[in-house]
Amino acid sequence: MVAPPDNDDVLWARTLSYAYGGSPALLGVSIGARKGEILAVTGPRGCGKTTLLRCLSGQLVPDHGEVCFDGVAVHSLPALDRERLRCERFGWIGTEPQLVPELTSWENAALPLLLRGTARRTAKTAAREWLDRLDVGECARVRPAGLVQAQRQRIAIARALAATPGVLFADEPTAPLHRADRAQVLRTLTSAARSHGITVILATHDEEVATLADRTVALLDGRRVGSAPASEEEGRAACSVSA
Ligand SMILES: Nc1ncnc2c1ncn2[C@@H]1O[C@H](COP(=O)(O)OP(=O)(O)OP(=O)(O)O)[C@@H](O)[C@H]1O
Prior knowledge:
The chain is α/β, with parallel strands linked by helices. It has eight helices and ten strands. Helix 4 crosses helix 5. The protein starts with 8 loop residues before the first strand and ends in a 10-residue tail after the last helix. Adenosine-5'-triphosphate binds next to strand 2 and helix 1.
């Protein structure tokens, strides 16, 4: 059975290829995600998950193929517009928490909101709420150097959620956490995303983590395993080139 064209995808990519210095990491990958959907990208180490997320989020420009978010052709935006899009509409949780060492935990969590011009008091309230939800409320006034890695990662997750992005890219987000804490943090992340209509693209090599997603796409050696629905290969309306 051929799936009908799906024009509800808020983020989609068609035939993405990317190589690092001639060494291919992605080969013709097509993918789509709807608003509020939690989509897991799975596969063994080195299969191209991070590269795919970096292409989808505009951090990398694919060698071939297209990325479209909310009608905007991300791959053809000038670098500054891609940066603005990432700042205003996307969130990123990496495997390593990258916090600003000079700022306290709440200031780190509030940073995307402050950069967008949100009033300091409002941004602080939102940041502290998310720190509480992620069980690091007591660390609000502590700088990253005074925290353990698992606490820093919870703060990075709070920072991503506090900004309520359109799409949250999460690359092995629970890797630095203790095994016992992973399920709880992932549940907080996925339930927050569902209640706020945030689309999540979740890269993981852990099958258990992937079970929390609405749908899974598997990669192997830079290619999508199994066939992509027809809607992800063709039949899309062209996206515009302005942000
Ligand atoms: N900056 C880089 N320079 C050169 N090669 C890279 C770079 N980043 C990734 N690669 C290579 O590209 C391929 C895909 O890597 P990628 O990190 O996207 O996979 P992954 O599935 O996310 O792996 P992991 O789970 O280990 O992060 C691998 O062969 C990797 O060695």
